[in-house]
Write a structure and sequence with these properties.
2 domains; two-stranded antiparallel sheet; Aminopeptidase
Length: 333
Protein backbone atom coordinates (compact mmCIF):
# COMPACT_ATOMS: atom_id res chain seq x y z
CA UNK A 1 0.00 0.00 0.00
CA UNK A 2 2.82 2.38 0.91
CA UNK A 3 4.58 1.60 -2.39
CA UNK A 4 1.44 2.38 -4.42
CA UNK A 5 0.96 5.61 -2.49
CA UNK A 6 4.56 6.64 -3.21
CA UNK A 7 4.08 6.00 -6.94
CA UNK A 8 0.86 8.04 -6.98
CA UNK A 9 2.55 10.94 -5.15
CA UNK A 10 5.47 10.93 -7.59
CA UNK A 11 3.16 10.90 -10.61
CA UNK A 12 1.16 13.72 -9.11
CA UNK A 13 4.32 15.76 -8.54
CA UNK A 14 5.39 15.22 -12.16
CA UNK A 15 1.99 16.34 -13.42
CA UNK A 16 2.12 19.44 -11.23
CA UNK A 17 5.61 20.22 -12.49
CA UNK A 18 4.65 19.86 -16.14
CA UNK A 19 1.59 22.04 -15.60
CA UNK A 20 3.75 24.66 -13.88
CA UNK A 21 6.29 24.61 -16.70
CA UNK A 22 3.54 25.22 -19.26
CA UNK A 23 2.32 28.24 -17.31
CA UNK A 24 5.79 29.49 -16.38
CA UNK A 25 8.33 28.31 -18.98
CA UNK A 26 11.94 28.30 -17.75
CA UNK A 27 15.23 28.69 -19.54
CA UNK A 28 16.20 25.01 -19.56
CA UNK A 29 13.47 24.39 -22.13
CA UNK A 30 14.12 27.53 -24.15
CA UNK A 31 17.11 28.14 -26.38
CA UNK A 32 19.51 29.96 -24.02
CA UNK A 33 21.60 32.92 -25.00
CA UNK A 34 24.87 33.58 -23.18
CA UNK A 35 24.40 37.03 -21.67
CA UNK A 36 26.69 37.19 -18.63
CA UNK A 37 30.13 35.82 -17.77
CA UNK A 38 31.36 36.10 -14.21
CA UNK A 39 35.17 36.22 -14.10
CA UNK A 40 36.48 35.27 -10.67
CA UNK A 41 40.22 35.76 -10.05
CA UNK A 42 40.78 33.43 -7.08
CA UNK A 43 42.14 34.46 -3.66
CA UNK A 44 43.39 38.03 -3.07
CA UNK A 45 44.21 40.33 -0.16
CA UNK A 46 44.84 38.40 3.04
CA UNK A 47 44.50 35.13 1.11
CA UNK A 48 47.34 34.90 -1.41
CA UNK A 49 46.79 31.23 -2.18
CA UNK A 50 49.73 29.10 -3.33
CA UNK A 51 53.24 30.56 -3.45
CA UNK A 52 55.88 30.11 -6.12
CA UNK A 53 59.51 31.18 -6.05
CA UNK A 54 58.69 34.83 -6.72
CA UNK A 55 54.91 35.19 -7.10
CA UNK A 56 51.59 34.20 -5.58
CA UNK A 57 48.49 32.54 -6.94
CA UNK A 58 46.45 35.66 -6.15
CA UNK A 59 48.68 37.81 -8.38
CA UNK A 60 48.61 35.41 -11.31
CA UNK A 61 44.84 34.87 -11.03
CA UNK A 62 44.22 38.62 -11.04
CA UNK A 63 46.50 39.21 -14.03
CA UNK A 64 44.86 36.45 -16.08
CA UNK A 65 41.37 37.36 -14.89
CA UNK A 66 41.60 41.02 -15.86
CA UNK A 67 43.02 40.14 -19.28
CA UNK A 68 40.29 37.55 -19.77
CA UNK A 69 37.52 40.01 -18.93
CA UNK A 70 38.95 42.59 -21.30
CA UNK A 71 39.27 40.02 -24.10
CA UNK A 72 35.68 38.83 -23.61
CA UNK A 73 34.41 42.40 -23.79
CA UNK A 74 36.29 42.90 -27.06
CA UNK A 75 35.26 39.58 -28.61
CA UNK A 76 31.66 39.56 -27.34
CA UNK A 77 30.51 43.17 -26.81
CA UNK A 78 26.95 42.01 -26.09
CA UNK A 79 28.01 39.86 -23.13
CA UNK A 80 28.04 41.48 -19.70
CA UNK A 81 31.27 40.93 -17.73
CA UNK A 82 31.13 40.76 -13.94
CA UNK A 83 34.38 40.65 -11.93
CA UNK A 84 34.43 39.34 -8.38
CA UNK A 85 37.54 41.45 -7.78
CA UNK A 86 39.72 43.81 -9.82
CA UNK A 87 42.43 44.61 -7.25
CA UNK A 88 44.52 42.69 -4.74
CA UNK A 89 41.77 42.45 -2.13
CA UNK A 90 39.20 39.78 -1.30
CA UNK A 91 35.69 40.48 -2.63
CA UNK A 92 33.91 43.01 -0.43
CA UNK A 93 37.32 43.98 1.01
CA UNK A 94 36.84 41.12 3.49
CA UNK A 95 39.66 39.53 5.46
CA UNK A 96 38.10 36.08 5.86
CA UNK A 97 38.57 33.87 2.78
CA UNK A 98 35.57 31.62 3.53
CA UNK A 99 33.24 34.61 3.82
CA UNK A 100 34.76 36.05 0.65
CA UNK A 101 34.02 32.83 -1.25
CA UNK A 102 30.40 33.04 -0.15
CA UNK A 103 30.29 36.60 -1.38
CA UNK A 104 31.73 35.50 -4.73
CA UNK A 105 28.84 33.06 -5.11
CA UNK A 106 26.28 35.67 -4.06
CA UNK A 107 27.68 38.12 -6.60
CA UNK A 108 27.43 35.47 -9.31
CA UNK A 109 23.92 34.47 -8.30
CA UNK A 110 22.59 37.88 -9.21
CA UNK A 111 22.78 36.40 -12.72
CA UNK A 112 21.46 32.89 -12.12
CA UNK A 113 20.56 30.55 -14.95
CA UNK A 114 21.72 29.08 -18.24
CA UNK A 115 22.31 32.57 -19.64
CA UNK A 116 25.35 32.93 -17.38
CA UNK A 117 28.75 31.29 -17.06
CA UNK A 118 31.04 31.38 -14.03
CA UNK A 119 34.81 31.13 -14.61
CA UNK A 120 37.11 30.95 -11.58
CA UNK A 121 40.84 31.43 -12.25
CA UNK A 122 43.46 29.72 -10.05
CA UNK A 123 46.97 28.23 -10.04
CA UNK A 124 47.88 24.75 -8.93
CA UNK A 125 50.66 23.81 -6.49
CA UNK A 126 52.43 20.73 -5.23
CA UNK A 127 55.27 20.26 -2.71
CA UNK A 128 57.89 23.02 -2.47
CA UNK A 129 58.23 25.87 -5.01
CA UNK A 130 61.01 25.19 -7.51
CA UNK A 131 62.28 22.07 -5.78
CA UNK A 132 63.93 20.81 -2.62
CA UNK A 133 67.08 19.10 -1.30
CA UNK A 134 67.05 15.39 -0.57
CA UNK A 135 69.64 12.81 0.50
CA UNK A 136 70.68 9.59 -1.22
CA UNK A 137 73.01 6.73 -0.33
CA UNK A 138 76.23 6.79 -2.34
CA UNK A 139 78.32 4.21 -0.48
CA UNK A 140 79.68 3.09 2.89
CA UNK A 141 82.84 3.48 4.95
CA UNK A 142 84.27 1.37 7.79
CA UNK A 143 83.72 2.64 11.28
CA UNK A 144 85.02 1.20 14.56
CA UNK A 145 82.54 0.91 17.42
CA UNK A 146 82.86 -0.63 20.88
CA UNK A 147 80.22 -2.70 22.58
CA UNK A 148 80.02 -4.04 26.10
CA UNK A 149 81.68 -2.91 29.32
CA UNK A 150 84.84 -3.81 31.28
CA UNK A 151 86.41 -7.13 30.27
CA UNK A 152 83.55 -7.76 27.90
CA UNK A 153 84.21 -4.62 25.92
CA UNK A 154 84.87 -5.55 22.29
CA UNK A 155 85.79 -3.67 19.13
CA UNK A 156 83.66 -4.07 16.03
CA UNK A 157 83.93 -2.70 12.55
CA UNK A 158 80.70 -1.67 10.89
CA UNK A 159 79.92 -0.11 7.52
CA UNK A 160 78.67 3.42 7.99
CA UNK A 161 76.40 4.72 5.17
CA UNK A 162 77.57 7.73 3.19
CA UNK A 163 74.88 10.12 1.97
CA UNK A 164 75.01 13.09 -0.33
CA UNK A 165 72.57 15.94 -0.77
CA UNK A 166 71.10 16.65 -4.17
CA UNK A 167 68.50 19.03 -5.56
CA UNK A 168 65.16 17.68 -6.74
CA UNK A 169 63.48 19.93 -9.28
CA UNK A 170 59.71 20.25 -8.95
CA UNK A 171 58.69 19.03 -12.38
CA UNK A 172 54.92 18.86 -11.94
CA UNK A 173 53.25 20.97 -14.63
CA UNK A 174 49.99 21.25 -16.52
CA UNK A 175 46.45 22.56 -16.40
CA UNK A 176 43.33 21.16 -14.78
CA UNK A 177 39.74 22.32 -15.13
CA UNK A 178 37.21 21.38 -12.47
CA UNK A 179 33.44 21.23 -12.21
CA UNK A 180 31.14 20.39 -9.32
CA UNK A 181 30.69 16.64 -8.89
CA UNK A 182 27.51 15.02 -10.22
CA UNK A 183 27.21 12.82 -7.14
CA UNK A 184 26.73 15.95 -5.01
CA UNK A 185 23.89 17.40 -7.07
CA UNK A 186 21.68 17.84 -3.99
CA UNK A 187 24.14 20.48 -2.74
CA UNK A 188 24.18 22.31 -6.07
CA UNK A 189 20.39 22.17 -6.44
CA UNK A 190 19.94 24.47 -3.45
CA UNK A 191 21.20 27.33 -5.60
CA UNK A 192 19.26 26.84 -8.83
CA UNK A 193 16.91 29.60 -10.02
CA UNK A 194 13.47 29.89 -8.43
CA UNK A 195 10.25 29.55 -10.38
CA UNK A 196 10.05 33.28 -11.05
CA UNK A 197 13.56 33.31 -12.54
CA UNK A 198 13.76 32.57 -16.24
CA UNK A 199 17.47 32.78 -16.89
CA UNK A 200 17.44 36.58 -17.04
CA UNK A 201 19.35 38.70 -14.51
CA UNK A 202 18.05 38.16 -10.99
CA UNK A 203 18.07 40.81 -8.29
CA UNK A 204 17.41 38.68 -5.21
CA UNK A 205 20.74 36.98 -4.41
CA UNK A 206 19.30 35.05 -1.48
CA UNK A 207 16.33 33.55 -3.33
CA UNK A 208 16.89 29.82 -2.99
CA UNK A 209 14.48 27.24 -4.38
CA UNK A 210 12.33 25.62 -1.68
CA UNK A 211 13.25 21.94 -1.82
CA UNK A 212 10.47 20.74 0.49
CA UNK A 213 8.00 19.95 -2.30
CA UNK A 214 8.33 17.07 -4.81
CA UNK A 215 7.73 19.55 -7.63
CA UNK A 216 10.65 21.69 -6.51
CA UNK A 217 12.91 18.67 -6.17
CA UNK A 218 12.15 17.49 -9.70
CA UNK A 219 12.64 20.98 -11.07
CA UNK A 220 15.93 21.39 -9.20
CA UNK A 221 17.14 18.04 -10.54
CA UNK A 222 16.47 19.17 -14.11
CA UNK A 223 18.39 22.38 -13.56
CA UNK A 224 21.37 20.77 -11.86
CA UNK A 225 21.67 18.19 -14.64
CA UNK A 226 21.67 21.03 -17.16
CA UNK A 227 24.26 23.01 -15.18
CA UNK A 228 26.46 19.94 -14.77
CA UNK A 229 26.38 18.98 -18.45
CA UNK A 230 26.99 22.54 -19.61
CA UNK A 231 29.82 23.00 -17.11
CA UNK A 232 31.44 19.84 -18.38
CA UNK A 233 31.04 20.92 -21.99
CA UNK A 234 32.75 24.27 -21.42
CA UNK A 235 35.47 22.73 -19.23
CA UNK A 236 36.24 20.18 -21.95
CA UNK A 237 36.57 22.94 -24.54
CA UNK A 238 39.01 24.73 -22.21
CA UNK A 239 41.14 21.62 -21.70
CA UNK A 240 41.10 20.85 -25.43
CA UNK A 241 42.44 24.35 -26.15
CA UNK A 242 45.18 24.00 -23.53
CA UNK A 243 46.19 20.64 -25.01
CA UNK A 244 46.38 22.07 -28.53
CA UNK A 245 48.54 24.90 -27.18
CA UNK A 246 51.07 22.35 -25.95
CA UNK A 247 50.27 22.47 -22.25
CA UNK A 248 50.82 19.33 -20.17
CA UNK A 249 47.75 17.06 -20.19
CA UNK A 250 46.71 15.90 -16.72
CA UNK A 251 43.62 13.87 -17.48
CA UNK A 252 41.14 16.42 -18.76
CA UNK A 253 38.06 17.65 -16.93
CA UNK A 254 37.80 16.65 -13.27
CA UNK A 255 35.03 16.83 -10.72
CA UNK A 256 35.41 18.55 -7.38
CA UNK A 257 33.30 17.26 -4.53
CA UNK A 258 35.26 18.15 -1.42
CA UNK A 259 33.71 20.28 1.26
CA UNK A 260 34.66 23.89 0.76
CA UNK A 261 34.65 24.27 -3.03
CA UNK A 262 31.96 26.84 -2.53
CA UNK A 263 32.28 28.73 -5.82
CA UNK A 264 31.41 25.54 -7.73
CA UNK A 265 28.71 24.33 -5.34
CA UNK A 266 26.87 27.56 -4.63
CA UNK A 267 26.69 29.13 -8.09
CA UNK A 268 23.30 28.69 -9.76
CA UNK A 269 24.69 28.42 -13.29
CA UNK A 270 27.29 26.46 -15.29
CA UNK A 271 30.56 26.99 -13.44
CA UNK A 272 34.19 25.92 -13.81
CA UNK A 273 37.42 26.38 -11.88
CA UNK A 274 40.51 26.60 -14.10
CA UNK A 275 43.92 25.72 -12.67
CA UNK A 276 46.08 27.60 -15.19
CA UNK A 277 49.31 25.82 -14.26
CA UNK A 278 51.62 24.89 -11.38
CA UNK A 279 53.09 27.94 -9.70
CA UNK A 280 55.48 25.60 -7.84
CA UNK A 281 57.26 24.67 -11.07
CA UNK A 282 59.99 27.18 -11.93
CA UNK A 283 59.43 27.23 -15.69
CA UNK A 284 55.65 27.21 -15.42
CA UNK A 285 55.70 30.00 -12.82
CA UNK A 286 57.70 32.14 -15.25
CA UNK A 287 55.17 31.31 -17.98
CA UNK A 288 52.20 32.15 -15.71
CA UNK A 289 53.70 35.54 -14.85
CA UNK A 290 54.77 36.45 -18.38
CA UNK A 291 52.70 38.65 -20.66
CA UNK A 292 52.85 36.08 -23.45
CA UNK A 293 51.88 33.25 -21.13
CA UNK A 294 48.86 35.04 -19.68
CA UNK A 295 47.71 36.16 -23.13
CA UNK A 296 47.94 32.59 -24.42
CA UNK A 297 45.89 31.31 -21.50
CA UNK A 298 43.30 34.01 -22.21
CA UNK A 299 43.28 33.12 -25.91
CA UNK A 300 42.67 29.47 -25.06
CA UNK A 301 39.74 30.32 -22.78
CA UNK A 302 38.27 32.74 -25.35
CA UNK A 303 38.30 30.00 -27.99
CA UNK A 304 36.53 27.72 -25.52
CA UNK A 305 33.90 30.42 -24.88
CA UNK A 306 33.32 30.75 -28.63
CA UNK A 307 32.71 27.01 -29.00
CA UNK A 308 30.56 26.84 -25.87
CA UNK A 309 28.46 29.85 -26.90
CA UNK A 310 27.89 28.42 -30.37
CA UNK A 311 26.91 25.01 -29.00
CA UNK A 312 24.72 26.47 -26.27
CA UNK A 313 22.80 28.81 -28.54
CA UNK A 314 22.40 26.33 -31.39
CA UNK A 315 21.04 23.54 -29.19
CA UNK A 316 17.33 23.24 -28.58
CA UNK A 317 17.96 20.83 -25.68
CA UNK A 318 20.77 22.20 -23.52
CA UNK A 319 20.17 19.50 -20.91
CA UNK A 320 21.63 16.92 -23.33
CA UNK A 321 24.98 18.68 -23.73
CA UNK A 322 28.13 16.87 -22.62
CA UNK A 323 26.88 13.31 -22.37
CA UNK A 324 30.21 11.77 -21.33
CA UNK A 325 31.42 12.91 -17.93
CA UNK A 326 34.53 12.21 -15.81
CA UNK A 327 34.70 10.45 -12.47
CA UNK A 328 34.84 12.49 -9.24
CA UNK A 329 38.30 13.34 -7.91
CA UNK A 330 39.61 14.78 -4.67
CA UNK A 331 42.92 16.11 -5.97
CA UNK A 332 44.27 19.18 -4.24
CA UNK A 333 44.32 22.53 -5.98
Amino acid sequence: MRYKLLILCTLAAVCILLTSLKKHPVSIYAKPVLKTIIVDPGHGGTDQGAHGLFSTEADVALGVGLKLGKAIQKEFPDIKIVFTRTTDVLPGNLTNANLANRLRAQMANEYKGMNSLYISIHCNATQKPGGWYAKRLVGTKPKIVYVGKGKRRRKHVIQEPIYESYYVENKVTGTETYIWAADRSDEKSKFVPGEEETGENVQDTLNVLDLDSPEARIRATLYTKTFFNSSYLFAKYVEDEFLQAGRTYRGGVKQRNEKGIWVLQATGMPSVLIETGFITNKQEEEYLNSEDGQLQIVENVIEAVKKYKKELESSSKPATLGAAVPSPTNNNE
